[in-house]
Amino acid sequence: MRLLVRMYDPRLTVVQRSGRVRRRYNSDSIRTIETKVTRIFRKKPGGTLYAHGFMPEKYALIARQECYQPDGTYLFEVNEVHNRKTLESFFASGLIEMDVTEVES
User: Fold this and answer.
1) Phi and psi at residue 12, to the nearest 5°
2) Residue 22, pLDDT score
3) Would the pTM count as exceeding 0.85?
4) What is the pLDDT of residue 39?
5) How many whole angstroms separate alpha carbon 64 and alpha carbon 3?
6) Separation between Cα atoms, residue 76 and residue 57, nearest integer Å
7) For 19-75, what is each residue's pLDDT tens digit?
8) What confidence score (pLDDT) does residue 60 get?
9) FRET pair for 64, CA 20 to 30 Å: which of 27, 28, 57, 102?
């Protein structure tokens, strides 16, 4: 199953300057990419939807290392609004976790 997912880049230090004061803070950069996923799940009912999927090679160098799973997949956050038709069966089932390796879309 192919889904539109969000990937967080590593935290970047941003300098904001207003007048004479400089403030430093960390900011996450979010990329939206399409990738093939193997498993979709929620950590709690009604919570954020996550997916384990394959990282495209062009993003592998900038990906967070702690999001890689032992089986070689990557942890993505799923955008439910853009994937509503694709995930219709998951939402209708009421499950918290679903293996989607055999599902073609």
Assistant:
1) -110, 140
2) 61
3) no
4) 94
5) 20
6) 15
7) 665 666 666 678 899 999 999 999 888 889 999 999 999 888 888 888 899 999 999
8) 86
9) 102
Ranges assigned E (strand) in 1-105:
2-8, 12-18, 21-27, 30-42, 49-53, 74-78, 97-99
d(CA 65, CA 59): 12
CA–CA separation, 98 and 93 (whole Å): 10
Contact status, residue 35 vs residue 53, Cβ threshold 8 Å: yes
Q: Which of 91, 52, 88, 57 is nearest to 72 (CA)?
A: 52
Residue appearing with tokens 């590593």 = 10
Separation of alpha carbons 104 and 2, rounded Å: 8
What's the pLDDT tens digit per position in 78-100?
Answer: 989 899 999 999 999 988 999 98
What is d(CA 102, CA 105) in angstroms, rounded to the nearest whole number? 10
